[in-house]
Amino acid sequence: MIKEDKEKYTDILEDSITYLENHNFENIKADLEGYETPKSFTKAGSNISITPDVVATKEGRTYYFDISLKSEKPKLLKSKWLFLNTLSNLKSRRFKLITTRGHIQFSKEMLDDINLGEKKLIRI
Fold first, then answer.
1. pTM of whole model > 0.90?
2. Bigger pLDDT: 118 or 14?
């Protein structure tokens, strides 16, 4: 989810965190009141900042989660997903996408566009 959509979809973010807590994820960090904010990554030479929606650990492994929702800026969302996927591969971590009803087809099409079609979506 991009920064502009965070305020509009806080309920989905809260549902996602509840889902992760129920599935034994620990040390949950989210850009939400009551949780520690995840580390942001800034592109060198610009003011573009990328922050995963949720970061959590399970069995000693770190997971990056992004909430996949229809967006007005799909290009920005694609670049965020590509960055998080590359970062997770470099650091032996996992990158997962969480989506809800009504956004599944959009998410699948976006993943196919950036050649990440093999990613499985977590549906809440």
1. yes
2. 14
